Structure formats: structure tokens, C-alpha cells
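Need a sequence for this fold. Nothing fancy.
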């Protein structure tokens, strides 16, 4: 019988967990011996601190709050009933004194476990009873037999604590019994495990082998051994992720042929002359990187990062003009109809000015879901017949009906809203077009090394010189009348304002402000002398665009809105944004909303309004995240978000904090990105290990892209077995 058969066979498994319990284990996904071996603890308790009873008593008197282990002999036991309650108290002694253990539950079971004369190791948090005795309540314990090396399973060492789902508890599988089952599996079957990492990778990175790692993850001989085991599994997980990333990048760069473009005319120079501003040094640097990519016959696959308002769209438009100048079409895809429509209008305006200067017409076409059928068909025809040079759209660009004539460049705005598979669908519309993916949500370095590691990185890390940092202020709800007066007064200076609400209309379930109710109330009370508009998610995109257009034309002084304005909306004179119930918004979302103001040269204001107690708590919350415990962070998340907004304007700092608060999956849509979720690694704290794994993986794929070398056969085997869904993007499937 092979090792694989043993680890996955039903006979050994049934024997290990017991036939009556097998069904419960199956329900929680533990169906084989191998599953048992990799059902790792959620945490460990250090019970290596074995003391005498008298020493333990001194510890308690001095305020010790940790766990201790004492070994003693049972001298007597008391079993008492108080109505329906039963209490068991067992008295022990060692050479230095006495101690007692008490159980308020399951007394009937435990009374038969402890017999006079038996010796036990007892572990738990010690206290003193009302009579001053050293006491443990519901401790863990081991009976000490002649073979002491086999006796310690729950005490006297570093003890694993497992998650025990209700399905297991219903079959009376608790901490003791699960620990015993897994211990037996580890002792009898860990030796059967086959290595997942090539020997040279494990050796070069000082990683223990898989057998030793499994043993020490469950029942570590020391804290150091536990740390080594955890590091090994983190590295393995990151290594295979980076192998996939490296394969994808190699596939794109080496197996696909791109278009080698050139600067054919003065089109870009002429376009720059039409701009009412000069590009920043950061924009020029990024443009140079993009231009070099486009001139190469290797397809461009570049991530363009930049904070809200840093000028990514202009850079992307210049890249599109290079493509158009070479006879290609260019497409830009946005996540919402409103943003796509705005892109189309802005680009069309730029092209009108360019035509006035050069007499060259560059046609812009818009393709979004809510268009009239006749207009949509006309646009589809223009795209297919190359009557359209720059095509703007939403995910409607994915559709089979969209046939590009000669697609040379794709720009994807707000990259984190689209997955790898979606990106691939659009790329398939052309013969290996160049690709720029843009993100106004700055992506922390650890994520650019992993999820976006197949993309070359360009960063616009400079804001236009005329921009003043937005002043962010946190206020309690009782200050709302003063804030509304401030908005009214500022409107006399030409300021326009957004007032944002979390809901479209009133909800019975949520005590949150809504846009519709407050639109009616504000324009008849506090803002009755101002022109007030409304935009929300239930409107059609045409209605939203109409409201935004009137606001841009200064037909409204104030726009009441929901988060439909979160991405990309550009109103130069909107310089105040009031966000109600700000504690209910995510940090990244708050930063995006703040980015709707401060796009001109006036001082802009972002006013966060929340309940009084949250505002006061936020003002006190000044500790850096690194110095807060996970439980503190969990309790104070809203306060941390709001205080971070007040303290920082830098989107990269905001993104790092948001990553720590929420995790990468929630922020960047990684669950649709074609990569597995992390089981062991922490993308926030394991940045050094990520870099180490990346260097190893990229070196291997650079030297052996098809994994044909004997040393790398095991890598290919693991990829085929465990990551087959991801291989279709990598080129070796």
C-alpha cells in the first residue's frame, strides 16, 4: 500500500477517529488521516512552567496571571449537590503543600477519573479560594503513569488548542479527546507524509522537513520548534503562490508577442500643449516607463498606482494617444456607468481642443449597459469598423458582441474591482494588446509582490503643485447645525459641497441617516436658500449623469449623495464634503470620498460626522496600530478608522491601516482574483518571507519556465495537483 493510500484510506481513518465519530468529522471536512494531520491548532498554551504547590501559591499572591502546572497526588475528593447543581472538589498534595481542583460542570464524569493515590499533572490559571487555598477551576490534567514520557498530553508542555465545531461537540469530542485523536495520528502517520518542497529550497531557506513541521505544529518540543514549523508552512504557501505569479508573468512576457509602437507624429506633444497645467515629475517618470513598454515588442502588463487626484487618467490618455497614433484602437474600462460616462465626456473635451490645434479628429465612443439599443448598435458598428479610436466602457466591453478592429491598448480603471479572469477576457479581444491597470486605492507593497506580482509597477507619488491637502475634521452629531451653516457661508465664496449619507432611504433595521429624507428636510430648512441636488444608486445612470452635469455646471450649490460619487467624480469647485454616519464607512471608502474634493486650488474640507460617543472615543484613540492588541483593534475599529482619516492624507498610509483592519480579501476583491486564500501566511506581518519566497520562485521560473528540470518535477506535481484552476493563466497547464 502506498503512502498516499495510507493517508487517504478509509480503514486507517475509521480506526483513528472511531466509526461512531467518523460522520461528525466528515461534516467538518476531516475525511482522511491526512486531513487530521493538517488540522492545525488555532493557538498554543505554554504549560512548561511546572512548579511546586508552595511556589505556585507565592506566584498567585504576587498577582501572576498566567498558567501553571503542578504535579500532585489525590488525597481526597468532595462531591456535593446544591439543588440541581453538582460540584466536585479534588484535593491534592505534593512535597511542598496542598492544592485543590474544582469542577462545576460534568462532576459525574470527573468523580470517576480521580481516585485516591493517583498522581496527576494539573494545568490552568491558579487562584485562591475564599478559604485562602490554592485552587484551579476546570483545569486540564494528565494522569502520570510509570512511563512519564507518554503521560504529558494536556499539561507540562506547549499544548495545542484546536477549533472544535459544534458537529464534533455534539459527539462529545472536546479538547481532551480531539488532542488524543490527533496525537495518535501524528505519532502513527506523520512519517508517511511526502515532501512538498524540493530539497534544495528547504535547505537554502533553513526550513524543517514536512514531517518534523507537522509534529512540531501540533505538539512542539519548544517555542523555537513551533516558530520554525509555522514559518515552513507560510513559506510553502507563499512559494507556490509566487510560482504561479512568476509563471503568469513569464507566459505574458516570453510566449506572447506584442506590438512594437513608436512616436510617429507630434500628436502627444500637441496634446500636452492643450493642457492648462504641466505634468508633475512623477507623471513624466511613469510616462517614460509606459512609453518604453509600448515601444518594445514584449506586451506591456503594467500596474499604475497613484493616490486620488494624482493624475493617472491623463497619463493613461497619453498612452492611448500613442496607440492611436500607431493605427490602433485603445479601450478604457471603468467600474461604473457614471465614471465611464465621465471619462468619455472628459476625453471628448480633450480631443476637441486637440482637433482645434491639429485639425486631426480622434473619435471617442462610449459603451455601457444602460444605453438605448439604437445608440448601442451604432457604437458597436463604429468599434468594429474602426470609426472609433478610443472606446470607453464598463464590463460591457467584455461582451462577445464587442468586436474591436485593431485593439492595441487596454486601460482598466480601479483594478481591484476586476478579477484576473475578467482582465483576461478583455485582453483576448485583441492580438496581445498592451495593458495598463490603474488603482486609486494604493496597494501595499506586500500585495504588489503577491497578487499583482505579474504586473510591472509604476507609481505616481506626487500630487499636482496647486493642490492643497484636504483638511479633515471629526465632529459629533450635535455640531451638524454649525457645519450646515459653514456650508451655507462658504457657498457665497463659490464653494460647492457634497453631503453624503450611507442609505438611499430610511430603513427600519438600521439607525442610519438616508439621502431621500434629508434631501427633503435640508432644502426646506437649513439649506432652503441654496440650490440642492440629489444623486443615489437607485437612479438610472442617465439620471445620475444629469445630476452630476448640473452640479458641474454650478446649477447646484449642494449635492446630496450616497456612495455613488465614491469613484472618479471630478468637480473642480466641490471643496466641502460632509460624510454622515462616517463610522459606518470603510477606511478606503472614506479616503475615496475625501478625494472628491480638493481638486482645484482652493482649501478643501472633509467633515466626518458620527455619534457623540464615537467622536469622543476617536479623539482619545491616538495609539499606533503596532502597539495595540488584536482585541483592542477589534473593539476600536471605527475609532481607528476615523482618527486615521484625521491624521493622514497619504493614501498609501491609509491603505496599510485598512489592510491591518480588514485584511486583503475585503479590500481588493482577492476572492475573485484567481488565487487561493492564505491559510498560514499573514500578508501584513510576513513581508520579509513574501520577498524571500518571491525571489526563490522567480529565479526558478526564470531558469526553468516549463519546470522540466529533475529538481523541479515535484513543484510541477504539486501545482498540477493543488492549483490546477490557476494554471490556465500560467501557460503550463
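Here you go.
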Amino acid at each position: 500500500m502506498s503512502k498516499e493510500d495510507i493517508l487517504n484510506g478509509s480503514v486507517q481513518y475509521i480506526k483513528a477517529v472511531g466509526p461512531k465519530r467518523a460522520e461528525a468529522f466528515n461534516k467538518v471536512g476531516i475525511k482522511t488521516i491526512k486531513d487530521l494531520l493538517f488540522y492545525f491548532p488555532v493557538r498554543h498554551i505554554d504549560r512548561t512552567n511546572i512548579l511546586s504547590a508552595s511556589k505556585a501559591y507565592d506566584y498567585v499572591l504576587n498577582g501572576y496571571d498566567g498558567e501553571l502546572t503542578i504535579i500532585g497526588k489525590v488525597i481526597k475528593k468532595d462531591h456535593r449537590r446544591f439543588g440541581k447543581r453538582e460540584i466536585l472538589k479534588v484535593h491534592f498534595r505534593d512535597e511542598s503543600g496542598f492544592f485543590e481542583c474544582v469542577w462545576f460542570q460534568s462532576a459525574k464524569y470527573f468523580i470517576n477519573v480521580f481516585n485516591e493515590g493517583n498522581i496527576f499533572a494539573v494545568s490552568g490559571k491558579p487562584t485562591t479560594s475564599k478559604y485562602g487555598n490554592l485552587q484551579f477551576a476546570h483545569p486540564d490534567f494528565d494522569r502520570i503513569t510509570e512511563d512519564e514520557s507518554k503521560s504529558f498530553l494536556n499539561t507540562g508542555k506547549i499544548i495545542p488548542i484546536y477549533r472544535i465545531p459544534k458537529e464534533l461537540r455534539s459527539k462529545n469530542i472536546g479538547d481532551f479527546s480531539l488532542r488524543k485523536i490527533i496525537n495518535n495520528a501524528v505519532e502513527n502517520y506523520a512519517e508517511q507524509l511526502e515532501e512538498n518542497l524540493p530539497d534544495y529550497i528547504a535547505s537554502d531557506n533553513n526550513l524543517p522537513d514536512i514531517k518534523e513541521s507537522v509534529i512540531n505544529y501540533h505538539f512542539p518540543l519548544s517555542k523555537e520548534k513551533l516558530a520554525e514549523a509555522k514559518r515552513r508552512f507560510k513559506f510553502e504557501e507563499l512559494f507556490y503562490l509566487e510560482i504561479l505569479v512568476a509563471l503568469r508573468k513569464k507566459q505574458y512576457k516570453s510566449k506572447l508577442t506584442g506590438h512594437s509602437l513608436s512616436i510617429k507624429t507630434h500628436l502627444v506633444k500637441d496634446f500636452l500643449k492643450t493642457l492648462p497645467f504641466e505634468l508633475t515629475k512623477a507623471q513624466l517618470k511613469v510616462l517614460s516607463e509606459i512609453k518604453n513598454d509600448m515601444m518594445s515588442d514584449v506586451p506591456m502588463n503594467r500596474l499604475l498606482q497613484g493616490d486620488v487626484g494624482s493624475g493617472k487618467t491623463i497619463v493613461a490618455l497619453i498612452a492611448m494617444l500613442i496607440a492611436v497614433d500607431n493605427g490602433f484602437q485603445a479601450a478604457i474600462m471603468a467600474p461604473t456607468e457614471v465614471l465611464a460616462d465621465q471619462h468619455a465626456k472628459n476625453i471628448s473635451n480633450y480631443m476637441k481642443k486637440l482637433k482645434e490645434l491639429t485639425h486631426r479628429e480622434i473619435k471617442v465612443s462610449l459603451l455601457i449597459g444602460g444605453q438605448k439599443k439604437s445608440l448601442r448598435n451604432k457604437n458597436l458598428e463604429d468599434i468594429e469598423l474602426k470609426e472609433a479610436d478610443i472606446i470607453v466602457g464598463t464590463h460591457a466591453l467584455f461582451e462577445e458582441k464587442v468586436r474591436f478592429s485593431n485593439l492595441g491598448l487596454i486601460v482598466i480603471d480601479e483594478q481591484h474591482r476586476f478579477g484576473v479572469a475578467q482582465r483576461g477576457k478583455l485582453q483576448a479581444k485583441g492580438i496581445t494588446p498592451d495593458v495598463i491597470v490603474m488603482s486609486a486605492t494604493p496597494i501595499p507593497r506586500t500585495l504588489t509582490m503577491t497578487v499583482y506580482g505579474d504586473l510591472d509597477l509604476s507609481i505616481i507619488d506626487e500630487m499636482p503643485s496647486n493642490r492643497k491637502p484636504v483638511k479633515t475634521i471629526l465632529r459629533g452629531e450635535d455640531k451638524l447645525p454649525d457645519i450646515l451653516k459653514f456650508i451655507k457661508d462658504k457657498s457665497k465664496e463659490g464653494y460647492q459641497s457634497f453631503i453624503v449619507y450611507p442609505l438611499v432611504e430610511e430603513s427600519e433595521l438600521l439607525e442610519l441617516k438616508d439621502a431621500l429624507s434629508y434631501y427633503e428636510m435640508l432644502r426646506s430648512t437649513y439649506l432652503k436658500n441654496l440650490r440642492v441636488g440629489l444623486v443615489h444608486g437607485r437612479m438610472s445612470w442617465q439620471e445620475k449623469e444629469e445630476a452630476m452635469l448640473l452640479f458641474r455646471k454650478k446649477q447646484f450649490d449642494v449635492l446630496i449623495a450616497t456612495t455613488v460619487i465614491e469613484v472618479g467624480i471630478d468637480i473642480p469647485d466641490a471643496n466641502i464634503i460632509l460624510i454622515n454616519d462616517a463610522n459606518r464607512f470603510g477606511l478606503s471608502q472614506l479616503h475615496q470620498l475625501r478625494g472628491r474634493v480638493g481638486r482645484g486650488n482652493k482649501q478643501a474640507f472633509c467633515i466626518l460626522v458620527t455619534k457623540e460617543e464615537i467622536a469622543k472615543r476617536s479623539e482619545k484613540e491616538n495609539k499606533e496600530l503596532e502597539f495595540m492588541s488584536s482585541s483592542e483593534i477589534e473593539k476600536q475599529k471605527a475609532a481607528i478608522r476615523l482618527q486615521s482619516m484625521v491624521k493622514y492624507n497619504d493614501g498609501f498610509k491609509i491603505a496599510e491601516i485598512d489592510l491591518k483592519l480588514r485584511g486583503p480579501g475585503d479590500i481588493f476583491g482577492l476572492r475573485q482574483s484567481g488565487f487561493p486564500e492564505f491559510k498560514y501566511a499573514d500578508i501584513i506581518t510576513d513581508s520579509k518571507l513574501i520577498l524571500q519566497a518571491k525571489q526563490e520562485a522567480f529565479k526558478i521560473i526564470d531558469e526553468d519556465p516549463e519546470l522540466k528540470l529533475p529538481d523541479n518535477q515535484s513543484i510541477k506535481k504539486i501545482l498540477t495537483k493543488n492549483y490546477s484552476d490557476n494554471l490556465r493563466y500560467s501557460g503550463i497547464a
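For context: The chain has a mean pLDDT of 85.
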